[in-house]
């Protein structure tokens, strides 16, 4: 029973190990701010703009993550910036709406609402719309910063407005969804939900407005008159903003579910359960859709089926909604870092990093992932020529190391997908060392043993000390971090091969002959002979 449990545990450990390689995007660069990042980024040209809890708006180079400039405020920035006509607009909890030059961060204007701002600005027809925690929606001239009109909902507005076809749609914490005239602020219609609308912001498609509420419902409303088209119950607060792509509405909820609903009927297309609340919103990139979660992960799903493609763990909340270009995805985390990760990446299963190589060739292998079908995996040593490896999602290659001089060298791998997108640098690399002769292990073991009997293999170093951190592999299993000795009990007859390796030492292999234990046979045979002998004696005496 114990052996069976050990095998089960080993199997699941293998799956966890395999999955950690199979479902892990690679970080191409990251930038650390001095505060959490709740703000969602925008990507314009080659520059990424986002805000941080440290009160600064950042502009980073898309390719390298190099800081171009930052603009300080006196509050935290939850707001997602908006770009229009060379200007970046954003807001801060210091109560100000800012307009800065996108190229040099020069302030063009600011406007004080006098209240915290969690909402994000949108600009339509040179008018900026934004909500504030004083309950007002503001319409501000985007060129001058002059107030045009306000609408008072009498409850905080953290929902970001949606401007479309002469109207502005948004939700309020007074449980209402509003449609206002974009020019005058007059109410065209309002719709009552059963809970406050916190942060969830509307999306618009084919004359339908989609928005979530803390009552747990996703609402589809007629954009013309506010009548209810359909609802879908998610079972918990919706803070995530619904996003409509290809006739599916994607939304997260605080019970950890990520769901896709049919935009026409509200029927469930697929769902996935994360371990914590999903307050990020979806972004579509080709056939993949991305979501962040409060469990610290950014996940990629097949947009049509919901199958998980890969995940990246930042270690803290991901409420920032990502932005994507090509195979690169950009997002912020509550660990204070802003990340650029590639959906195309490869990883090494073997050899291990910092290994010492003695053989004239090495077998390199690993895993690869992408939003699209993996077409090819490439491998190189140092800065040499890229060679195509065998396999795709699981790959391998035999590399000749004879031409390499003794000393340090690197292995690298990269991926190309079916759309001919290729993983950008920096590539996944391993550092290894080649040596022409290694220190010799001193191994003590019996030349042979009997089936079912435990024997000991003792491993010592150059100075006869018991070595730690030894790897032992046999035909029946492998063991890592062995300390000095290991007890083995083969369960089959024949040659039992043992391989022993340790960093800094040349690997050793040996074979122990395993045979059946014939003790009982001989004892039994002897007993029979004794009985025969006694019987003969008794017969003679009789």
Question: For the largest beta sheet, what order do the strands appear in spatially?
Answer: 34-41-40-36-37
Q: How confident is the prediction overall: mean pLDDT?
A: 89
Strands, count: 51
Q: What's the shape?
A: elongated
Largest sheet: 5 strands, mixed
Q: Which residues form runs of ≥5 with pLDDT under 50?
A: 1-23
Report Rg.
33 Å
Considering DSSP H and I runs of 4 or more, what fraction of the residues is helical?
under 10%
Structural class from helices and strands?
A: mainly beta
Strand content: over 45%
Distance between the termini: 56 Å
Helix segment tally = 2
How would you describe this structure to a colleague?
- By secondary structure, this protein is mostly beta strands.
- It contains 2 helices and 51 strands.
- A 5-stranded mixed sheet has the order 34-41-40-36-37, with no helix packed on it. Strands 44-51-49-46-47 form a 5-stranded mixed sheet, with no helix packed on it. It has a 4-stranded antiparallel sheet with strand order 1-32-31-30, with no helix packed on it.
- The protein starts with a helix and ends with a helix.
- The relative contact order is 0.08.
- Residues 1-23 have low confidence and may be disordered.
